[in-house]
Amino acid sequence: MSADAVTLDLLREARETVRSSPLGVINTPMIPWCQTTLPLNINCNIHIKLENMQRTSFKIRGVANQFARRTKGGRFVTMSAGNYGKSFAYASKHYGSRGKVVMPETAPMSRSILIQSFGVEVERVPTSSLMNVVNRCVQEDNMTFLHSYDDLDLIAGHALGMEVLEVQSEPDVVVVCCGGGGLLAGVAAAIKLSGCDKTRIYGVEPEGACTMYKSFIEKKPVGMDTKSIASGLAPPFARLPYELCQRYVEAIVLVSDEEIKAAVSALYRSGLVVEPSGSAAFAAIVNNKIPELEGKGVVCILSGGNIGKDELANFPD
Are strands 45-50 and 30-32 parallel, antiparallel or unpaired? Predict the structure, then answer.
């Protein structure tokens, strides 16, 4: 499947599928930065898309579109550090499907327990073994693999850029976190295909898990050994998201783990519970990683609130 398969009609159809999904996907609020107590040292008009308030996580959008196009009651396997796994487990329970989530050993144990609470099996393995275990489940257990980021239905379901445009008809800049690139690709495609040719879209990755950044440099999807506090932004490389990001994204910028930790704490002090992976876009803005924001209309997407008390205890007050 190539980037040409992602059309405006496809995204509109997916949006209606997601909106009418029995999984209860919500249109998350978008609020002006000036109506929060968040720090800002740039003179610009920023809106924050509170996708951290989404049911399970932003991944429920793509999962809703995936499950709507699969046989009800099937046997599915996936790999995830948490966000996709939680949404996958929630959908599996709703649709009466048997599911299994293969998780990296580095993922917080609290996320494994949460996923298991939906009745889905979890297997924790070294990151380098994730795909091998998934392939074993497909071959030996006759399960169907649902990809957590490199999947057309998933990316189309993530086209929440259309919701952004309902509030900001033509933003100057949109900033989105990037892991496998499914969310960034979906948002960017929706905004650009809707006619916002001048909008600059930036992806944000941790310095220790910058696969899309390296892929942009190499001009092809590449992988790397990743290490970051933002475990949800540390997947292997992905082909279709890379192609879409190459076409529609201005650039990938990097933030350090320390900047991500500070972002999580700043958001929490302002009453917003956002996990490290979901805080990357915010971290990029407050640390002046995005060029030419002065006087611009900016949208920052906070993409996940899956963080437990055990994890929050590790962040500065």
Answer: antiparallel
| CA-to-CA dists, residue 221 to 32, 202, 215, 263, angstroms | 35, 18, 5, 29
What 3-state DSSP class applies to 133? helix
Neighbours of 134 (CB within 10 A): 21
* Bridge partners of residue 75, in order along the sequence: 98
Distance CA 55, CA 167 (A): 21
Domain-terminating residue out of 96, 117, 145 = 145
For tokens 């009453």, name the residue.
271
Q: What is the extent of the structural domain holding 140?
A: 71-145
User: What six digits make up the tokens of 86?
Assistant: 């939680």
Token pair 């257990």 is found at 141
Residue pLDDT, tens place only, 225-257: 667 676 665 666 678 999 999 999 999 999 999
Tokens of 57: 């996580």
Please write the tens of the pLDDT for every residue from 2-21. 899 999 999 999 999 999 99
Could you tell me if 193 and 308 lie in one domain?
Answer: yes
